[in-house]
Amino acid sequence: MKKAIYPGSFDPLTLGHLDIIRRSAKIMDELVVGVLHNSAKNSLFSIDERVSMIEEMTKDIPNVSVASFDGLLVNYMKTIDATIIIRGLRAVTDFEYELQIAQTNHVENPEVETIFLTTSLQYSYLSSTIVKEFASYGGDLTKFVPPEFIDRIYEKYQIERNGF
Ligand code: PNS
To answer: pLDDT > 90: what percent of the chain?
Structure first.
């Protein structure tokens, strides 16, 4: 039984994240999307909003569930009996940070393995940070996030969606 976690902040979930979720759900028996509850980080969406937004977008994938966690990822993984971490790799710039985290997690618990999926080409530039920056200036988000999220993101910035 291959049970994996795809951890992240998902503030908000992007089309790139959704692509990784769909592809890794095909490889794993069970996939938990783990949303980091980081009170130190000033997030755009609350933890409950982020969890329910991801649930909404993954309800058609039977082996995917969504949960929030705080503290160390490896500790949370023990509580849900998962041993595989999924991460998406976009460019070389992601590599150093991801390698450090993967190795730290493996040292902490040698049972834990990280599997990297390379991001699909059309999402290789995309991140939640870019989405927020773009949205804050009224940019067109249709290529970045699920259409259902666009108005919710704009509401957070209290700006009107203009012409798209
Ligand atoms: O979407 P992000 O912000 O790149 O996700 C980072 C995340 C959540 C995977 C990472 O920060 C994490 O696992 N945080 C929990 C604390 C932890 O276990 N850190 C790794 C060992 S230092």
So the answer is: 91
Is residue 141 one of the residues assigned to a domain?
no
Return the best residue to mutate from 11, 72, 103 for the ligand 1 pocket (most ligand atoms within 8 A of CB): 72
| 38 and 49 Cβ atoms separated by less than 8 Å | no
Number of domains the chain contains: 1
What is the domain range of residue 28? Answer: 3-126
Is residue 79 assigned to a domain?
Answer: yes
What are the Cα distances from residue 28, in Å, to 74, 117, 126, 130?
A: 18, 13, 24, 29
Q: Which helix or strand (DSSP H or E) is residue 22 part of?
A: helix 15-27
Render pLDDT for 118-155 as a digit per residue (tens, 0 to 9): 999 999 999 999 999 999 999 999 999 999 999 999 99
Here the tokens at position 100 are: 């450090």
